[in-house]
Design a protein that fits this description.
The protein has helices at about 5-30, 85-90, and strands at about 35, 45-50, 55, 60-65. It has about 90 residues and is of the alpha+beta class.
């Protein structure tokens, strides 16, 4: 392998390491600071997505701000369908 390829590879590994370290620190801090909650308020509620498909909420994740004050909420709606994993297996 020539020197240019080695430098590119080392640079890429360094950048990836920095990104992963930053993500891991944020995740760990949020978990252990008590900012992450799993409220049961909407569990079991039916939701209709933009394409008129209906789903049942089985898990909710809430991250409080640093002062534990509710701010303007953001909503991330995700839906997954795994061929070999039934939804009942993923419900906690």
């Amino acid at each position: 392998m020539d020197m240019k390829r080695i430098l590119v590879l080392v640079s890429a590994i360094a950048i990836l390491s920095l990104l992963l370290t930053g993500f891991a620190n944020t995740f760990v801090l949020n978990i252990f600071s008590g900012r992450v909650h799993f409220p049961e308020k909407y569990i079991g509620r039916n939701l209709t997505m933009e394409d008129d498909k209906k789903y049942v909420v089985f898990r909710r994740l809430k991250i409080s701000d640093k002062n534990h004050i509710d701010s303007d909420p953001s909503v991330f709606k995700a839906r997954f369908r795994f061929k070999s994993l039934k939804p009942s297996i993923n419900i906690c």
